[in-house]
Design a protein that fits this description.
The first copy, chain A, is of the alpha/beta class and 560 residues long. The first copy, chain A, is built from 16 helices and 32 strands. Chain A folds into 4 domains: 6-118 and 252-320, FAD/NAD(P)-binding domain, CATH 3.50.50.60; 133-249, FAD/NAD(P)-binding domain (3-Layer(bba) Sandwich), CATH 3.50.50; 341-454, FAD/NAD(P)-binding domain, CATH 3.50.50; 460-558, 3-Layer(aba) Sandwich (Oxidized Rhodanese, domain 1). The mean pLDDT of chain A is 96.
């Protein structure tokens, strides 16, 4: 029998255990050692907000496999409560410290796997050491937050950062009976995921659930009470009372060991790996939150810490440390979250990100019911599709709303991965039956809007552009073409607004001045586009419509 | 001003109205006439089962746009209650009959659009003219079925054909209080969509809802009572009492007009069109249920009557009759249905269809929760993935179960459209958060099972193969590696079955005879695969596992 392959894996959350299990399946005779500083292996950290809220009652099932599984079933050496402190690449050894006994020892490897993950960003703001200021990255954090929240006299929580974890935790802390304020330094919620206009209805939804979202407000520090507990967050704009503070400012790769071992670190601060997930030392592989991955659209490195990617990395590494040669194609930055009764997802680039990456973009903003509107219970979604203007290649998409978002994000992810264009998206043979979809999926409609724009048939303004014109007092007609009952119920409040239902437009268009600039809106833009084409046909020279229309208009309206 | 383009459209359900509306948007000056023999335009016929069941209360919203919309808003000539009876291709005229006045007239066209749809298959079985035997293709059919069911003394309904409409109608008629029997001549439910093993749990679900499914039973005719009403269905195997009968044997393209006009008809009986949806006469376009479409996988023609395709056809035709040159890429045969609390979908080819088309296939059968199992409410799905063995190219997929199926079908549809392989599917960056998915989507797992099979790591038998061996009394060990409580609760009943939990297998494998043939099962196959690899590693030479395992095992079990 040949000498067995010694595989040592540092990190036991997602990528590490997956790599270990896969390596065992590929090579029944490998000697595998897995090193984890915490008490558990294979923890579902993405479930932590739901464990805190009580939606997940029992933390047991969040640990996918107990350490005994890795030891007894998979036949590995499991070192929990153990920290890797140094890598000697020449000798191919890892130094580890037993955190209980403080004893050091050395473990030899043929292949080393770094699944060391990431750590929450904690800026050095004044007062950061006060009690009651938390970050969330593992089960002990979650238990500490739960316990602290239960003992609070001041039931006010402040979350710093309106990203994925921050907003999921807003729901969780509200479920614990806390009054939640979210502070976001940038201009809107989920700024890394959504373009500004897509975040407006999310902000409304959070407000309807009692969550106060304060955007564009930077934190300077914290003040505490006599017992050393946090009492408020001091911001550029004032302060926010807080019995509990959660910092959710993103994560940074853990690269201490890697740096000391002299392995290459990328420009973004993550471990640099090739497509086989090998570091600059071919005997050392790395995956999960700690590494830089390739963005499939831009082909540039990015940090995209996600449990889904960590699992894929684990499988690839487990194969490659046992003689395989699998490659990881990269990521699209796909992400989704459930926030109360609202869903928000993104894949690929937002319009802002695409423009920052140098693309000239063309976009569509399409409000739509999640399935056939005549089938009961259809909730609303809004799709934003981003494509390259010259080629029509899809660059990204966002879906938000109370309706089904994950399906559309995943379809876009599949389309983006193959370099699809809006033409191919428009005719995708998606599954249709009234409980699941409309005959035309909202993605089909979004693709067709972009086709209509590229063909010069549809000409649009954004809501922000219309609002700016109204605020400047520009001389134009903002034409509402909905029905009289809709008009009475709610309409845009501005002196430029004029009402002429689409149903009467063909008979009455002569009432409109031919030389005026006309911008049309309706409820979702479907009728507004029809009206634009009708007026085009009658020789009006300066007609556009406002994409998204009243259903997503985030500004003031009036009624009556 | 140039002479306007005269566009005449025959057919007002889906493709026709869509073509009309699109033509109007592309060409504001075209003269457009739309001819429909029924009373409505733009009817959502896919909603009819839900209208019959009462889930959809009001038929109003099932008519997307009233005829007035096409006349007053879109400025067209609308001829409802009018039948097109002849096409004169030389003179470019259509003869129409007003069904009320019986008056004929002639309409000139520059471009003609045939959106004449399909008609339900009605075999000439004895007794077919008895009262109470229905087909379902439009609102009048639906209203007639509703009315007849309400007046029934014998509350027994028989549905002939367990296809999409047949099974949707089983749910609808059960909701009306009828005792429903479904007769299917082929061997299992949804035989055009699902492979046999995928239909087993659907049959169980239907049975749990009181629907009796009789497969492999051919209809010979009907017998009636003295009032001329149907009383029973006579089959090869006996009879089935029936107060009401629905024939759901699929549809055939309506090609009477087309044949008389001498236009080309394809081998499958549908109108032959090119990729621009032009018939053999370049001035005549056709789309919707009546035409043959290209299967994207096989590149061969197929009939795939779906409202989703009809709408896409309408948009393309509307563009092309006004100077455009859009192409239709074809279909994947994607379909989905909700049957009580169960979902079943398919895209691309089933394994049987792929083999019939000449492919050597490799498949995966993966039971999985719809989202992270530790997040509450995860329902089950089963994914079957079909790929070409030599290339790994994906050929199709099926998803069934009470859990989320539509998303996975749509992701596969997007992947299939780009010619994706199982390798690209395995690493798709799909949206992950515990309420929406597991870190690895069931599609990822299915792709990885195929990769493991191709790599020789995973070796499997199907459930049917195992059952056949048990029935023959073959000498092998059927090894159950689940936990003791699972074993006690339910297990496969056979003398070949032996119990040895995976948790003890590494310590106790020597209890198993090394020279025996061993087939392993667990609950979903995850542990069975681990056990196979463990025994492989210990030198056992003839070990496989049963794909799908007990969670989808459709045969007898025992407990205690």
């Amino acid at each position: 029998m040949p000498e067995p392959n010694h595989i040592v894996i540092i990190g036991g959350t997602a990528c590490g255990p997956k790599a270990a299990a896969r390596a065992r399946r590929c090579d029944p005779h490998a000697e595998i050692t897995i090193i984890e500083q915490g008490p558990n292996l294979s923890t579902a950290t993405c479930g932590l907000p739901y464990y805190i809220s009580g939606v997940i009652k029992d933390k047991g099932p969040m640990v996918a496999r107990p350490p005994e599984h890795f030891r007894d079933v998979l036949g590995m050496t499991v070192l929990i409560g153990t920290r890797a402190t140094a890598i000697d690449r020449k000798k191919r050894t890892v130094t580890v410290t037993d955190l209980k006994t403080k004893q050091d020892s050395s473990i030899a490897y043929d292949k080393l796997v770094l699944a060391t993950g990431s750590a929450p960003v904690r800026p050095g703001w004044a007062g950061s050491d006060l009690k009651g200021i938390f970050t969330l990255s593992d089960l002990p954090d979650a238990s500490a937050i739960k316990k602290y929240a239960a003992g609070l006299a001041n039931k006010e929580a402040v979350i710093v950062g309106a990203g994925l974890i921050g907003l999921e935790m807003a729901e969780a802390l509200a479920a614990l009976g806390l009054k939640v304020t979210v502070l976001e330094a940038l201009g809107w919620a989920l700024p890394q995921l959504l373009d500004e206009e897509m975040a407006a209805s999310l902000a409304k939804h959070l407000a309807s659930k009692g969550v106060i979202l304060r955007c564009g407000e930077r934190v300077n520090g914290f003040s505490g009470d006599k017992a050393g507990r946090v009492a408020s967050v001091i911001t550029g704009g004032g302060e926010a009372k807080a019995g509990l503070v959660l910092l959710s400012l993103g994560v940074r790769p853990e690269v201490g060991l890697v740096r000391e071992a002299g392995l290459k670190i990328g420009a973004l601060g993550g471990i640099a790996v090739n497509e086989h997930l090998q570091t600059s030392d071919p005997a050392i592989y790395a995956g999960g939150d700690g590494v830089e991955v390739t963005n499939i659209i831009t082909r540039k490195p990015m940090l995209a810490p996600m449990g889904s990617t960590a699992n894929k990395h684990g499988r690839i590494i487990g194969s490659n440390v046992t003689g395989g040669r699998l490659t990881f194609p990269g990521v699209l930055g796909t992400a989704i979250c459930k926030l109360f009764d609202y869903n928000a997802g993104r894949t690929g680039l937002s319009a802002a990100q695409a423009q920052a990456a140098g693309y000239e973009t063309i976009t569509a903003l399409v409000p739509a019911p999640e399935h056939a509107s005549y089938y009961p219970g259809a909730r609303e979604i809004v799709v934003k599709l981003v494509a390259e203007k010259s080629s029509g290649k899809i660059l990204g998409g966002q879906v938000v709303g109370t309706g089904e978002a994950a399906k559309r994000i995943d379809v876009l992810a599949a389309a983006l991965s193959s370099g699809a264009t809006i033409d191919s998206l428009a005719d995708l043979d998606l599954a249709y039956a009234p409980p699941f979809n409309s005959a035309m999926d909202p993605l089909h409609n979004a693709a067709n809007v972009i086709r209509n724009k590229r063909a010069g048939l549809a000409r649009t303004l954004t809501m922000a552009e219309v609002k700016a014109r109204l605020d400047r007092g520009d001389d134009f007609i903002l034409l509402d073409v909905r029905s009289a009952p809709e008009w009475k119920k709610e309409r845009i409040k501005a002196e430029q607004v004029r009402f002429l239902p689409l149903t009467e437009l063909r008979q009455r268009y002569n009432e409109l001045p031919r030389d005026a600039e006309i911008v049309i809106y309706c409820h979702t833009s479907v009728r507004a586009y029809q009206a634009q084409r009708l007026l085009d046909g009658e020789g009006f020279g300066n007609v556009r419509f406002m994409e998204g229309s009243l259903s997503v208009w985030p500004y003031e309206t009036e009624s009556g």
